[in-house]
Amino acid sequence: MSVSNKKFSAALPLWAEEATPAALKEMMRLALAIRDLMEDEEEDGRVAIACAALNRMRRYGPEGEGGGGAPSGPAAHARDFSDPALCRAIAVVCLVLSGDLEDPTGGATHFHRHTEEPDWARTATPKALIGQYMFYTLDQRFDA
């Protein structure tokens, strides 16, 4: 599998013209979800999850149109800034949005743990295996 060296170039999400409270809220929502997903991941897995989640939000929009939006996690509402995992997730989101980190997923928009096989993945071609996750770019909407 080949991986793109594509960098993110926007300092803010593509749907945000400026650092509005709504854009910052969306960034925090993404960081909270990523925190829950990357609990057992090493740094490369954290970056890959952040990139795929941002790719998905950019492709489908922040409100989840077309199966997009920020992934949701079991504790995506808990905002404890003394939580080191949340601080790491915020840092990863900021580094990816700033363009300082390359997208190791090749533009993937969907992912799942390699120990799982969701229905939508059965006919999809993986783009990358990073950490515990398989990454894909899907042309149609799947609830993932």
Task: Summarize the structure in words.
This protein has helices at 21-37, 43-60, 84-98, and strands spanning 110-113, 128-130, 133-136. Helix content is 35%, strand content 8%. The longest helix has 18 residues, at 43-60. The model is unreliable at 1-16 and 65-69 (pLDDT under 50). The two termini are 22 Å apart. By secondary structure, the protein is mostly helical. Strands 1-3-2 form a three-stranded antiparallel β-sheet, covered by helices on one side. Helix 1 (21-37) crosses helix 3 and helix 2 (43-60) crosses helix 3. It has three helices and three strands. The chain has one domain (21-136).
Which descriptors apply to this entry?
144 residues; mainly alpha; 3-stranded antiparallel β-sheet; 3 helices; 8% strand; disordered N terminus
